[in-house]
Design a protein that fits this description.
The complex is a heterodimer. Chain A is built from 12 helices and no strands. By secondary structure, chain A is mostly helical. In chain A, helix 5 packs across helix 8 and helix 5 runs antiparallel to helix 10 (212-250). Chain A is elongated and about 90 Å long. The model of chain A has no long low-confidence stretch (mean pLDDT 82). Chain B is an all-alpha fold. Chain B has one domain (20-29, 65-278, 291-314): MetI-like (MetI-like fold), CATH 1.10.3720. Chain B has 12 helices and no strands. Chain B has helices at residues 2-5, 12-30, 66-101, 105-119, 122-133, 137-163, 167-174, 179-187, 192-215, 227-235, 242-280, 295-314. Chain B is elongated and about 75 Å long. Chain B starts with a helix and ends in a 7-residue tail after the last helix. Classes of the chains: A mainly alpha, B mainly alpha. The A-B interface holds A 3-5, 7-8, 12, 15-16, 18-19, 129-132, 134-135, 138-139, 141-142, 146, 233-234, 237-242, 244-245, 248-249, 259-260, 262-264, 266, 268, 271, 275, 278-279, 282-283, 286 and B 112-113, 115-117, 119-124, 127-133, 204, 208, 211-212, 215-218, 228, 231, 235, 238-239, 242, 245-246, 249-250, 252-253, 256-257, 260.
Chain lengths: 302, 321
Amino acid sequence: MLFAILVLTALIFFLMQTTLGDPVVLMLGRDADPATIARLRHDLGFDRPSYVQYLDWLGRLARGDWGRSFRTAQPVLEAISTRLPVTLELTFLSLTLAVGLALALGILAAVRASTVLDVGISLLTALGTAMPNFWIAILLILLFALHLHVLPSSGSVPFLDNPLGNLRAMVLPALTLSAAYFSNLARLTRAKMLEALHSDYVRTARAKGMREGRILWMHALKNSLLPGLSVLGVSVSRLFGGAVVTETIFALPGVGILLVDSILSRDFPVVQGVIIVVTIAVFLTNFLVELSYAVVDPRARQ
Amino acid sequence: MRSWTLGLGSSISGWVGALVIGGALVCAVLGTQIAPYDPLRYDPRRVLERPSAPHLLGTDPLGRDVFSQIIVGARISMVVGVFSVVVGMAVGTAVGLVAGSVPGGVADVLMRTTDALLVFPSLVLALAITAFLGVSLWNVIGALAVTFVPTFAMIVRGEVLSLREREFVTAAWALGVGRLRVMLRHLLPNLSDVLLVQASFGIGTAILTEASLSFLGLGVPPPALSWGRMLREGYSYLLQAPWISIASGAAIFLIALAFQMLSDGLQDVLSRRGRRATRRGSAISPTGRSRGHSRLQRRERKARDWACDQADAHGPEPGEA
């Protein structure tokens, strides 16, 4: 994990260096006296080898000095931390929704395999994987906000001010964002449940006269959860990507919209900050998923 | 037989996908020649018209025909999809081949870097790259290509690791065939099936990501027509003219679905063919296409025949059928 974070931060650092050009020339202008340029470069430490500059930059990041926004002069860390709760809430709700729906429909489809219900569920999940989330969002807005007038189409209020209003504003974004992950997970759950239901240990349990419900929950489900867990780790990372688009459509003041706005106005310190936060979040969740293997799979504990 | 069935055989979903892709390709190549109107011509008298017989999908806020824009917009999607996957596949395959067949530190560093990029959200990666490089057709293609490198590298390495244990490769090593030659003549031809399936899937993903970038205002800049940007522009008129967003979204959805279906169809057919081939005990012949007479080629042919005999004698390897 540490290696991965090092690779990605190095990539960001060198991309920044090559795109921005020589910062001293940027400060003093092209016509400045070469001696002055050389002196300032030495004073600011830009004449050191680039790996030393990279390590120095990493050190500043670790101490919480992430620079200031070019646009608003707000410290980058502050700009991100005020917007992070919205993104975290959105991803958390979407993930909960996706996992809940996927397990329910996946199990249902496996238990009622090859019936109309099963076909309907597979059709729904096939649509979910191929439909771009911005299009799902637009169709949902058209239906629930513009025609039925039951849910707001954009904006959000802080959860502490108005919890109900906040959740109402989150329904459509969370549905949008969860669609693709729910579909993948549901297909996987169905396949793994079917496999488990046809396995020897389930047949043995049935032969012993165990109740069908107990077989389903205690035997089949537990064994079909494990592959879902590894997909979940990758899904969480994709959720952050989807959150960028979803926040833009629903005008939710989160980190995703901050990233897009900063890219459009070439506000590099903020772009860099957001990417670092996403990197840390992605690797942290993958780390947690790996840890949770130990809880679900006794074999992993050894 | 394979030449005219494109290797799709009896896979219905594969054929439906191929048909839709064929239609999109025709639109992409002919573009303005088959569009009923000039997609960029303003017509102030026909602003935001509902879908009707002369304008099948209505008009946009500038009076431009939406149907014509959809037809011409196929070009950007196809160009971005195909080029980014081809570039990403070339680089990824090279990385995977090296990581799979060269032992030691290089492979380790390559694969750990690939792992790091693989779990990173590809849309954010593409956004970051376009942020630093600026927005243009080739930068978008480049940014998307980078997001494909880790996927292809991972898949190719996995395949190479299993091929490496096969007799025709160990025989080639034993005969002292050079490392580069083993990679290009023996390993690469056996990767074509996996690469084909993944490339088809990848083009669909690339088209979706390009549409997302365009939707966010960071895709291919105007005047090139892009479905993602149409969707964005239509979004501002969602209440008055929902047909703009619905039509452009449907176009993106259909083409992405078509590539997914093609990929699934290819996967089905190839795995069926793979099972048959394994029963016969043959790998794809590395030198079958050219019956060369150099000493090296004769030696390799012998090695291959020996490998096939071995496979015939022992039957299919466990785990392959």
